[in-house]
Specification:
about 400 residues; Rossmann fold; seven-stranded parallel beta sheet; five-stranded parallel beta sheet; 16 strands; elongated; binds 1,4-dihydronicotinamide adenine dinucleotide; binds 2-oxoglutaric acid; ACT_dom; D-3-phosphoglycerate dehydrogenase; EC 1.1.1.399; serine biosynthesis
Length: about 400
């Protein structure tokens, strides 16, 4: 966004990847009309051209907002990830440019948990394989290898929002729930925390992954981990594709170590519905393959649209950064009769003192001031008399450590 206040109709918003229309409705209701919607992600060179002119961008999981792409986003004020995962954005690169990133941390939780539970039931009965055979005209009526979920152990790796929700649903079927997490977590229902990943893998009949993509979770399921699992284990991944070594999974399926799997996310995913999906897992009838649709339900998408759009509008309207993933969180009251200025700076000693001294020098009266910092940046919001705003902005831009300063309105 330019450094000065911009009329709402001039604020350009780009929504990619078929973000739900509820987002557009919400933005329009808040007075934003300059919205472009594109149903796919964009190739890097197209993205770079588009992003150069927008103030807000909304994406889902496919658009890669790298440091390089963001270096072309000179006007960008904020990023909305219309999903849970934010690994597709170089978060630190956005932060160092003073760009907050918002997401929807809960809106598709239930959808993922329901899908995983359904897949668990189907895989425990060998349904994908039997169904594939029936499609080819083969009649495979047999109880061999088919078991009930009741009494089986579900091992959840990553006991966050989705893992917890899944655990509760699985208990209603009579499953025993164990989980592994790097944090000590309060178990819901009768679930209990395993002392180590190895301990969990040894005892689970069904292993389901619900961790974020991080350096630590990269290939966290590889040959060594499959070897520890029970023979005939069911394996589910609806977290991120980078978490599982797919070749190791293919080997474990070939050797029947893994009796069935459901995979929703892949190390490399097609950019759009017209691109071929390539994976060694296509060879297996006992693997449910889904095109990253864990969170793709009407309910989830509609809620996500509303949630993220309202966070972007709130930031644009009054500077609130509540629940931004890379920014100091400031929840702000509205301001009437004053002008609001935002100042984003590197977190170094003395910035607030410099600001207050600069304002005092010109007798600029501060009606309200809010400051939050994290380890990297500081975020100050200042309400002043409207007539002082241009001068105040000039002063803010001179402050040592400034990343961005602008007048909201
Ligand atoms: N397939 C799909 O469409 C969807 C996929 N997702 C993916 O699912 C992931 C999980 O979502 P939520 O449960 O909402 O996230 P969350 O942040 O609530 O929970 C993640 C949990 O994983 C734990 N964790 C992190 N690193 C770990 C490690 N190395 N070992 C064990 N535990 C670890 C965390 O402590 C936390 O408890 C998201 O990050 C996203 O990538 C989310 C929604 C839809
Ligand atoms: O629905 C999407 O586009 C992505 C869902 C997802 O993986 C997430 O919310 O992290």
């Amino acid at each position: 966004m330019s450094n000065n206040s911009l009329a709402k109709e001039k604020i350009k918003i780009l929504l990619l990847e078929g973000v739900h229309p509820s987002a557009v409705e919400e933005l329009k209701m808040k007075g934003y009309s300059n919205i472009e919607c594109i149903s796919t992600s964009l190739a890097e060179e197209d993205l770079i051209k588009k992003i150069a002119n927008v103030h807000f961008i909304g994406i889902r999981s496919r658009t890669q907002l790298t440091d390089y792409v963001l270096s072309h986003a000179k006007k960008l004020a904020a990023i909305g990830c219309f999903c849970i995962g934010t690994n597709q954005v170089e978060i630190k690169a956005a932060q160092k440019r003073g760009i907050p990133v918002f997401n929807a941390p809960f809106s598709n939780t239930r959808s993922v948990a329901e899908l995983v539970l359904g897949e668990t039931l189907l895989l425990l009965r060998g349904i994908p394989e039997k169904s594939a055979k029936a499609h080819r005209g083969e009649w495979h009526k047999s109880a061999a290898g088919s078991v009930e979920a009741r009494g089986k152990t579900l091992g959840i790796i990553g006991y966050g929002h989705i893992g917890m929700q899944l655990g509760i649903l699985a208990e209603t079927l009579g499953m025993r729930v164990r989980f592994y997490d790097i944090e000590t977590k309060l178990p819901l229902g009768n679930a209990s925390q395993a002392s180590s990943l190895k301990a969990l893998l040894k005892e689970a009949d069904v292993v389901s992954l619900h961790v974020p993509e991080t350096l630590q979770t990269q290939n966290m399921m590889a040959a060594k981990e499959f070897a520890i699992m029970k023979d005939g284990v069911i394996f589910i991944n609806a977290s991120r594709g980078t978490v599982v070594d797919i070749d190791a999974l293919a080997d474990a399926l070939k050797s029947k170590k893994v009796a069935g799997a459901a995979i929703d996310v892949f190390p490399v995913e097609p950019k759009g519905n017209d691109e071929e999906f390539i994976s060694p897992l296509r060879a297996f009838d006992n693997v449910i393959l889904t095109p990253h649709i864990g969170g793709s339900t009407k309910e989830a998408q509609s809620n996500i649209g509303l949630e993220v759009a309202s966070k972007m509008a709130k930031y644009s309207d009054n500077g609130s950064t509540l629940s931004a993933v890379n920014f100091p969180e400031v929840s702000l009251p509205g301001h009437t009769g004053t002008s609001r200025l935002l100042h984003i700076h590197r977190n170094q000693p003395g910035v607030l003192t410099q600001i207050n001294q600069a304002f005092a020098k010109h007798n600029i009266n501060i009606a309200a001031q809010y400051l939050q910092t994290d380890d990297q940046i500081g975020y100050v919001v200042i309400d002043i008399e409207a007539q002082d705003s241009a001068l105040a902005l000039r002063e803010l831009k001179q402050i040592d450590g400034t990343i961005r300063a602008r007048i909201l309105h």
